[in-house]
Design brief:
Layout (H helix, E strand, L loop, with lengths): L1 H13 L4 H13 L2 H13 L1 H6 L4 H16 L3 H18 L5 H16 L3 H4 L3 H22 L3 H17 L7 H14 L6 H18 L1 H20 L10 H16 L7 H12 L5 E5 H5 L7 E7 L2 E6 L3 H18 L7 H11 L6 H18 L4 H21 L3 H18 L6 H29 L6 H32 L4 H14 L6 H18 L7 H11 L5 H18 L4 H16 L9 H17 L6 H11 L6 H16 L3 H4 L6 H13 L8 H14 L2 H9 L3 H13 L1
Antiparallel strand pairs: 1-3, 2-3
Subcellular location: Cytoplasm
Keywords: Acetylation, Cytoplasm, Protein transport, Repeat, Transport
Protein name: Importin-5 isoform X2
Length: about 750
């Protein structure tokens, strides 16, 4: 008990206005073991007596704060370990009507907890959570009407939103419990002091709509849209710092996701304020030491010291809103496609310069993401308009790849550039572009090798320890991620330009060959092989002139200890058979026993190996289909059939199903078996493929599979025999296929 009282004292001191007391308390607090800390905190949250002994309920709200912080910092482990205790303690505390401040902090902690809580953990508590939140919301709504107090209601509304966001479709039964009250708040909370409440309620309604889906939300959609429109038309009267603005901007984007194409009619109302917010120019200043003394970071300024007694200051207010607005423009372009075409010109003129907006990473990411989406929107206006737009963005994108300082943002820019090339196709880059791009990619690859050497050197340092290793591993992951984006860009270039681009590629050839050397880390070898896979797939038969560089490493990699490397090598054999040409024939023959060895290994279907194994099965299928002279098809075919279906790699699954259809349609005796005795097995393969979504209703492959089934359907006895071996899920899958294909 004494320990608990000491802990209460410590919590009170954490909130102390005295800096020294607070700092000492923080140091002591950090030394308490995690499990003990949580036990004491939950006791403090629940224990109303703590509030009586301490003249302030601050002990309890300090405890709520701490739980909220832990829920964010240690998610989802914290949620998995303590869900039962934390949820009940916070709900109990939220009911403490005598301490609104404690209620509000408990609600805030619940928001933190549910935001990162796995859905499966939250569902068992959903009923209790929702009933509690509803009771508190109704009580607080009454309080707002009678006394004008709103602090707890603001937090409760956000708690409801957070629970709905995590629960998704499981929230449907509770929808009618909340929606009338929430709409009531938006309609009536029009006073200036209720702006934040109104904004949070707008957010809550849109999150609930997204969670429950279009069908459930539709009856209210029109009324909600009218409320939002009314707020929007009053926007002109809102002050620039009105908290409703950012909530509105996000709510519109959610409504767009819910309504899809039907949202287009609202764009004329929405786009004005959105463009205004996205166009915010930050306040910046160059200050000397004298000026600095009159400014403080509390006024929303951040400073970078430039030396020589000078600092660069930027006012951060409005930057988050700008980033959100840019992200929403991305959302509209993505959801509405050609429905957004009217706005593509003004948005592209806004976004291209923002690739250099170094004050906020999120703005640059949104600018990059928007580029391929805007091109897709613009397609509807014909090739000339599309090409003009591409010319407007192309130079800026290439330059941004060369100059972007942040690796997360850089990967987004590279990814978007690759998507743009795929969209625009052959002829989209001129000689200057190729020259600049070649230099940049060469630089990225050289930097990749240099960074690896530097990390190896740091591992030999006397200061080297676990923490250093952790940092080095993070750096390594970043580097590999950039390497994947180099591969994306090369993939886009090869698939658009085919063998015409090989002379340009030769400046990078030696660096890619270095990636696949046996001593390099597995990720280097994986991505090096992926690049050569693209060369074979898109630039054959000319690709064979580089065979001396990659064929041996590719063959050896089929038996590599890393599944990722095996997968890249197996895919290479598949495209070699499909696209490579005559020169690759002996290598297809050589690969077959190696591929079969991988497939038949004892652990080939384990979680870490299954993708590589499925690529091997697909490669064997492609050799039999496109290069039957390289393999004894009759010998391999029964084995291949026994390895189907592919469940993980959906792309390769379609290849195998198409080949299976070829074989069935040509009445292959090995596949059908004597007197069609293999048909039940084939039905099983097809049913599993449909159930695992390896075949989709809309692709040509599923139509062919459906026809196979229909042919069996007409011969009664055989049909009964085939269907009787299937379980309920498989029978439903066959029925679904017949209904959709």
């Amino acid at each position: 008990m004494a320990e608990q009282q000491q802990f209460y004292l410590l919590l009170g001191n954490l909130m102390s206005p005295d800096n020294t007391v607070r700092k000492q308390s923080e140091e002591t607090y950090d030394t308490i073991p995690g499990q003990t800390k949580v036990t004491f905190l939950l006791q403090a949250v629940r224990d109303a007596s703590a509030a009586e002994e301490d003249p302030h309920p601050r002990v309890r709200y300090a405890a709520c704060n701490a739980i909220g912080q832990m829920a964010t910092d240690f998610a989802p482990t914290f949620q998995k370990k303590f869900h039962d205790k934390v949820i009940s303690a916070l709900l109990q505390t939220m009911e403490d009507q005598s301490n609104p401040r404690v209620q509000a902090h408990a609600a805030a902690a619940l928001i933190n907890f549910t935001e990162d809580c796995p859905k499966s953990l939250l569902i068992p508590y959903l009923d209790s959570l929702v009933q509690h939140l509803h009771v508190i919301m109704v009580a607080k709504l009454q309080e707002l009407i009678q006394k004008g107090t709103k602090l707890v209601l603001e937090q409760v509304v956000t708690s409801i939103a957070s629970v709905a966001d995590t629960a998704e479709e499981k929230f449907v039964p509770y929808y009618d419990l909340f929606m009338p009250s929430l709409k009531h708040i938006v309609e009536n909370a029009v006073q200036k002091e209720l702006r934040l409440l109104r904004g949070k309620t707008i957010e809550c309604i849109s999150l609930i709509g997204l969670a429950v889906g279009k069908e459930k939300f539709m009856p209210d959609a029109s009324a909600v849209m009218q409320l939002l429109l009314k707020t929007q038309t009053d926007f002109n009267d809102l002050e620039d710092d009105d908290p409703q603005i950012s909530y509105m901007i996000s709510a519109w984007a959610r409504m767009c996701k819910i309504l899809g194409k039907e949202f287009q009619q609202y764009l004329p109302v929405v786009m004005g304020p959105l463009m205004k917010t996205a166009s915010i120019k930050p306040e910046v200043a160059l200050l000397d030491t004298q000026d600095m003394e009159n400014m403080s970071e509390d006024d929303g300024w951040e400073f970078v010291n430039l030396g020589d007694q000078q600092s660069f200051g930027i006012k951060t207010a409005g930057l988050e809103e700008k980033a959100t607005a840019c992200q929403m423009l991305v959302c509209y372009a993505k959801e509405l496609k050609e429905g957004f075409v009217e706005y593509t010109e003004q948005v592209v003129k806004l976004m291209v310069p923002l690739l250099k907006f170094y004050f906020h990473d999120g703005v640059r990411v949104a600018a990059a993401e928007s580029m391929p989406l805007l091109l897709e929107c613009a397609r509807v206006r014909g090739p000339e308009y599309l090409t003009q737009m591409w010319h407007f963005m192309c130079d800026a994108l290439i330059k941004a790849i060369g100059t972007e300082p942040d690796s997360d943002v850089l990967s987004e820019i590279m990814h978007s550039f690759a998507k743009c090339i795929e969209l625009m196709g052959d002829g989209c880059l001129n000689n200057e572009h190729f020259e600049e791009l070649g230099g940049i990619l060469k630089g990225k690859l050289e930097e990749h090798f240099k960074n690896q050497e530097l990390r190896q050197a740091k591992r030999q340092d006397e200061d080297y320890d676990e923490q250093v290793e952790e940092t080095l591993q993070d750096e390594d992951e970043n580097d590999v991620y950039i390497l994947t984006k180099v591969s994306d860009i090369l993939h886009a270039v090869f698939s658009s330009y085919k063998e015409k681009v090989l002379p340009w590629f030769e400046q990078l050839l030696q660096l890619i060959v270095d990636l696949i050397c046996p001593h390099r880390p597995w990720a280097d070898r994986q991505w090096g092989l992926c690049i050569f896979d693209d060369v074979i797939e898109h630039c054959s038969p000319s690709s064979f002139k580089y065979a001396e560089y990659f064929l041996r490493p590719m063959m050896q990699s089929l038996c590599d200890s890393s599944p990722e490397v095996r997968q890249a090598a197996a895919y290479g054999i598949g495209v070699m058979a499909q696209f490579g040409g005559e020169n690759y024939r002996p290598f297809c023959t050589e690969a077959i026993p190696l591929l079969v060895g991988v497939i038949q290994a004892a652990d080939s279907r384990s979680k870490e190996n299954v993708n590589a194994t499925e690529n091997c099965i697909s490669a064997v299928g492609k050799v039999m289909r496109y290069r039957p002279e390289c393999v004894n098809v009759n010998e391999i075919l029964p084995h291949w059939l026994s390895w189907l279906p592919l469940n993980e790699d959906k792309e390769e699954a379609v290849h195998t199903f198409n080949f299976l259809c070829d074989l069935i349609e040509s009445n292959n005796p090995i596949v059908l078996g004597p007197d069609n005795s293999n048909l039940p097995k084939i039905f099983l393969i097809i049913a599993d493929g449909v159930a695992n979504e390896s075949v989709k209703g809309e692709d040509g492959c599923s139509k062919r599979l459906a026809n196979v089934i229909r042919q069996v359907q007409v011969s009664g006895g055989l049909w009964t025999q085939c269907v009787s071996t299937l379980n309920e899920t498989q029978q439903k899958a066959i029925q679904d296929l017949l209904n959709t294909a």
